[in-house]
Design brief:
The complex is a heterodimer of chains A (297) and B (471). By secondary structure, chain A is an all-alpha fold. In chain A, 71% of the residues lie in helices and 3% in strands. Chain B has 2 domains: 227 residues, D-Maltodextrin-Binding Protein, domain 2; 204 residues, D-Maltodextrin-Binding Protein, domain 2 (3-Layer(aba) Sandwich). In chain B, strands 1, 2, 3, 6, 7, 10, 11 and 12 form an 8-stranded mixed sheet that branches. Chain B has a two-stranded antiparallel ribbon with strand order 4-5. The radius of gyration of chain B is 22 Å and the shape is globular. Classes of the chains: A mainly alpha (297), B alpha/beta (471).
């Protein structure tokens, strides 16, 4: 018979602390501390020549709120997130349902479909710059083949640049929505669909009343992830348009980057980032409450 | 082409004969010797192996071919000095950010840092680099044929070498940087064959330039091209070349007196933007998004007749390996105006040793730095990678000029180039960025030249007030 000791081990005595301790240390070091540090910086401005921080109080925040570039960046970001997200969700869900039909050769096509998502956004930006080059870009060459002789100058005409950016974002990130929704779709029980068919439901009705409600949690999850990511879009803008022409593609993230890393206005950039955090938190909290995620089972 | 070079050189204040005389003198002192010769022929006290066994880390910018020559010479430096050299080359933005952090760390990660001219007031003015006067004078650490300052264009020394930290202004007697890995200014490239066929002389003023561009603009060939994208380092180069050459004065007052005011709404500023708008109409499609690469590529493909560009970037158009029109190109000073000569913008970099290094590392860094800023290395880098030289002896080198005929012109431009006025304040990049955006919008047709200038003026005043340079 095994002798059971009455004395508790260290682990048993400090079970809770031991289990959540590493997570708290991790969060403290890698999330809370940088967040608090950057919050602190947002009340200062760095004097590069003197090498010291000057306290501004709410000066950076006031400057941001009275800065017309900030407001134009909000509009650009909102248009980009809104339109890109809606198209990506519709296209991603449609593709997921389409490829769920197990058509011949679909595995191969699926693999190609998700390739853009794997590419680095800066590389994507540079790649599309080449494709959209008005002199020798393949994109305009294809457009010429279908009879459009004078296509827009995609990256130099302010009327087109934001749409070009949105198009490339859709091209790159629709596969993300597709992958998440497709995974959920594949895991759905088949008996529900079989019953619906036996009951005489048309394919469209099956999609409307069975498929979409069942995959809605995955759609919301993917959309929120994608929305947050799109809200922070910087690298694609950096590689493709550098925020221009003028400010036509300057997103909030790019504006924060520009001030922090090109102009060395660390305080201003931190304050801007904090405003973005607040906006994202409020926006997505409201969104989560607003979008009903149905219970699927 | 020779005549045109001579004519423009006379206009701009340094004639070809003077230039060649200075260059030849410098060449006699510095250019004739290789580093190998320097090791044996220089003063006996020079000890190239004094810091053997150490490692020197260099931080450079990527994309401008600066690191290539050093990489080629790593084994040579190891053999000559016994020092292991490690090179890191980062994209401009990343490099600038890295510099800011390493210079303020307790000890710098890098022993030698290359600094863009626009940033000198911020980093050298901030007292973050080591004074080099004693190193240059130290015969044990510097070969006798190093020839500083005589072999460097004076204007370049007052931009990327000497700095008055106490009064926070360029120039003075204290040396903090040595010009390198490349310097450079803007010159005009043109297609000799196209101008000759059309019977058009090489433009000498801005009105001639746009007239020629319009005449040469056919369906297949664009009259001119520009660096017109809204990136901070791009569009202002072309605008400033026009503005300064038209006699424009960018700033009035001084930052210290808090009356540092831009003159962007003046007639000359508007005219310079309007000239770019006019040029855009006879430039390749999409010129509003053109950076250096797009512009030089279009010219090298043979699609463009006239181009202003940094010679350090566009010099490759003379290289048959990278250009379809290498044998058909001429180069001259940029146009002037009725009463003014061409005044291109001054560019270039300066190598320095961070102040936050222990003395032994600084000494070893200097040993490598004097090598990579030597006359022989300057020639090697130019010959192999066509970056603009830093030394007069290289600009005047006969063999290099035979192969790259634009070199003499580039040397004259370096002697006459003008530093961007606002480079003397740390907010330089921000100002340039704001102007770049507004001018870019004018070029792509979203606003008029006058509106662009008024908007840029307002942005600049706001920035200057915030920074305390304008009351």
């Amino acid at each position: 018979m095994t002798k059971i000791s009455n004395s508790k081990s260290f682990f048993e005595k400090h079970e809770t602390k031991t289990l959540i301790g590493p997570a708290i240390v991790y969060l403290g070091l890698f999330s809370v501390f940088p967040l608090l540090y950057s919050l602190g910086i947002s009340f200062f401005e760095f004097d590069r020549v003197a090498g010291k921080w000057n306290f501004l109080g709410l000066g950076n925040y006031k400057e941001i709120l009275s800065d017309k570039t900030f407001w134009s960046a909000i509009v650009v970001t909102a248009v980009m997130v809104g339109i890109a997200l809606i198209v990506e969700v519709i296209a991603g869900v449609s593709l997921a349902i389409f490829f769920g039909q197990k058509l011949k050769g679909s595995k191969f096509v699926r693999a190609i479909l998700i390739t853009p998502m794997i590419l680095n956004p800066v590389v994507v930006g540079l790649m599309w710059r080449a494709l959209l080059n008005p002199q020798w870009g393949l994109f305009n060459w294809f457009i010429g083949l279908i009879g459009i002789d004078n296509p827009p100058i995609w990256l130099a005409d302010p009327k087109w640049t934001l749409w070009t950016l949105i198009f490339v974002d859709i091209w790159q990130w629709t596969p993300f929505i597709f992958v998440v929704v497709f995974a959920r779709y594949q895991a759905l029980p088949t008996d529900v669909f079989e019953s619906a068919r036996v009951d005489g439901a048309s394919p469209l009705k099956i999609i409307r009343y069975i498929t979409l409600p069942l995959v809605s949690s995955a759609v919301v999850f993917a959309a929120i992830f994608r929305g947050i990511d799109s809200f922070r879009t910087f690298d694609l803008v950096y590689g493709l348009t550098f925020g221009g022409p003028g400010r036509s593609t300057t997103t909030l993230s790019f504006y924060a980057f520009e001030n922090g890393f090109v102009y060395y206005r660390y305080g201003f950039s931190s304050a801007l980032s904090y405003i973005m955090v607040i906006m994202a938190t409020i926006g997505f909290t409201v969104l989560l409450k607003w979008i009903p995620v149905r219970r699927t089972h | 082409m020779k005549d045109q070079v001579g004519a423009n050189a006379t206009d701009s204040g340094v004639n070809r004969r003077d230039f060649l005389k200075v260059g030849a003198t410098a060449a006699a002192v510095a250019g004739a010797s290789s580093v190998g010769m320097a090791e044996s022929a220089s003063a006996a006290s020079y000890n190239p192996k004094k810091f053997a066994g150490t490692t020197v880390k260099i931080l450079l910018v990527d994309g401008e071919r600066d690191q290539e020559g050093i990489k080629d010479k790593i084994s040579k430096i190891k053999k000559t000095h016994g020092i292991k050299v490690e090179v890191t080359a980062l994209a401009l933005g990343a490099q600038l950010e890295k510099i800011q952090s390493v210079l303020r760390a307790s000890t710098s990660e890098y022993d030698i840092i290359d600094n863009l001219g626009f940033t000198v007031s911020g980093v050298v003015g901030g007292g973050l680099f080591t004074k080099l006067n004693n190193y240059i004078a130290n015969k044990e650490l510097t070969p006798s044929n190093y020839n500083y300052p005589a072999d460097f264009p004076a204007g370049q020394l007052d931009y990327t070498s000497r700095y008055d930290v106490a009064n926070n202004k360029f120039g003075g007697k204290d040396v903090y940087l040595i010009p390198g890995i490349h310097s450079g200014s803007v010159i005009m490239f043109y297609r000799k064959d196209l101008l000759a066929a059309a019977g058009i002389p090489v433009p000498k003023n801005w009105d001639d330039y746009i007239d020629a561009a319009r005449k040469l603009n056919t369906g297949k060939i664009s009259g001119t091209t520009m660096i017109a994208a809204n990136d901070v380092s791009l569009i202002l180069v072309d605008w400033y070349a026009r503005f300064a050459s038209m006699g424009g004065k960018l700033m009035s007052g001084t930052p210290g007196a808090k009356n540092y005011k831009p003159n962007l709404t003046g007639a000359t500023a508007v005219r310079a933007v309007q000239h770019m708008i006019d040029c855009a109409e006879v430039s390749p499609k999409g010129v509003g998004s053109f950076g250096f690469t797009e512009s030089v590529d279009a010219f090298s493909r043979g699609d463009v007749a006239l181009m202003l560009c940094w010679s350090t970037i566009a010099g490759s158009a003379f290289n048959p390996a990278t250009s379809k029109v290498a044998s058909k190109i001429g180069a001259v000073q940029i146009p002037g105006d009725a009463n003014t000569s061409g005044r291109p913008i001054r560019g270039g970099w300066g190598l320095g040793i961070p102040k936050n290094l222990p003395k032994k590392r600084k000494d070893a860094a200097w040993m490598v730095m004097q090598y990579i800023t030597s006359a022989s290395f300057d020639k090697f880098q130019m010959a192999n990678y066509q970056t603009d030289p830093n030394r007069r002896s290289t600009y005047a080198d006969a063999a290099l000029n035979k192969k790259y005929p634009y070199l003499k012109v580039a040397g004259q431009a370096m002697e006459n180039a003008k530093m961007l006025d606002v480079a003397l304040i740390p907010e330089c990049f921000e100002l340039v960025g704001e102007a770049a955006r507004e001018f870019n919008l004018a070029i792509v047709g979203s606003q008029t030249a006058k509106q662009a200038c008024a908007n840029a003026q307002a942005s600049w005043e706001k920035i200057l007030k915030r920074a305390g340079h304008l009351a």
